[in-house]
Design a protein that fits this description.
Length: about 150
């Protein structure tokens, strides 16, 4: 059964007109082909998010009404509030995508910020903005839970 991340990844790949990257035996990690694959994936994702932002702005402008009924007005305000929170999360994600694209250009993409090992093509397809390998990310999440507990 596909996971939510798998479905999201397939959606991103389809959006970019890409299929999952097929590594070849003996292929160098983060070679030009892999970097171009992730560059295209990230740009398509960023463009999709920007379109959503534009759609929200137009929707809010078009739907903004001064309802005489306080319940209708409150419902519209709640809807707009939810949309704005979603767009704020997406705005932060766009910044993270931009940071990742910059890392590609600086030849610093695909390696763990913490330990320096390869993050891996499959993990990067599941989470293109990943900057930690799965082991370091797991440890960071455990530490975070301990701090909150």
């Amino acid at each position: 059964m596909p996971t939510e991340n798998t479905n999201k990844t397939l959606g991103l790949l389809a959006l970019a007109g890409l299929s999952p990257y097929q590594e070849k035996a003996g292929e160098e990690y983060m070679n030009d082909n892999q970097l171009e694959h992730f560059r295209r994936l990230l740009r398509a994702w960023r463009d999709q998010l920007r379109q959503e932002v534009d759609r929200t702005v137009h929707h809010m402008q078009d739907e903004a009404a001064n309802f005489p009924d306080p319940v209708d007005r409150a419902a519209q305000e709640e809807e707009f509030s939810l949309e704005l929170r979603t767009r704020d999360r997406e705005r932060k994600l766009i910044k993270k995508i931009e940071k990742t694209l910059k890392r590609i250009e600086e030849d610093d993409f695909g390696f763990c910020d913490s330990c320096g090992i390869e993050i891996g093509v499959r993990r990067l397809e599941a989470r293109p903005t990943a900057d930690l390998c799965i082991d370091c990310k797991t440890m960071a999440e455990i530490k975070e839970k301990q701090m909150q507990g």
